[in-house]
Specification:
Layout: E1 4-9, H1 14-25, E2 32-37, H2 43-53, E3 58-62, E4 66-68, H3 72-80, E5 86-88, E6 91-92, H4 95-98, H5 102-105, H6 107-110, E7 138-139, E8 147-151, H7 152-157, H8 172-181, E9 187-189, E10 195-197, H9 204-208, H10 211-225, H11 230-255
Parallel strand pairs: 1-2, 1-3, 5-9, 6-10
Antiparallel strand pairs: 3-8, 4-10, 5-8, 7-9
Amino acid sequence: MPKFSIIIPTLGRSESLSDCEDSIRMQSNKDYEIVKVTEEGPLAKIRNLGAKRARGQYLCFIDDDVVCSPNWLEALQRSFGEGYAGVSGPSFISGKFRKQRDCFRYPTIWFSSKTPGTLSPWGQWSLEATNEGCDYDGPVDYLEACNMAFEAEAFRSVDGFDERYRGIGDWSEPDICFRIRALGKKLWFSRDAVVEHRPSQSGAYKKRLKPANRMENYELFSKRWIKPSVRHSVYKLMLRTYFNLKENRHGISRSE
């Protein structure tokens, strides 16, 4: 049985996937298997499908557009050796790839904590892990979506990702982390577990991307985990306005 199962949902991104797999083959730790999931469908469901096929003691979920540093698995193993149920690390995004993400184009909407893995009281995740200078080492509220590893036993104890999160699965990642933490387990951010994220909008991304689903995902998460407040209401209004604008543009692009 391999120590690590590296689960990669992938569809229509052969070039990105090739770079990703090359980086895995360069790992200093060779005790792993790669589980590629090529089916279509919502990301939460696809990730769970990969987990069912995995045989490893630890389940590593990465995107097919990341490149892992050579000691990535070694860093994860050290942290798991300390008894953590989940481990993440920096997922830096370089300048040209930041143009692919709205969170950098509209920073007012996405303004967040300077500590990675920290969720605001109104349910907004931190962007700190995307900065190349991120060197935080410590406990976190949640793991980075493109660089998250769970102890398989802990993952299965909460039945994996909640498949009620639709589309690209926004907020399904902090949700599973909150459910694992509710069992008294702890999550860790290792500054040495580094991946480079090269966000791509090709492949399955466009098939899954529906702005209306994204708002529904936030509503589901916030009902479970967010205490109502003025800031929560304001943030929800900002998100709804943003997603409505994206939905309108999406509709226009599809009709053209």
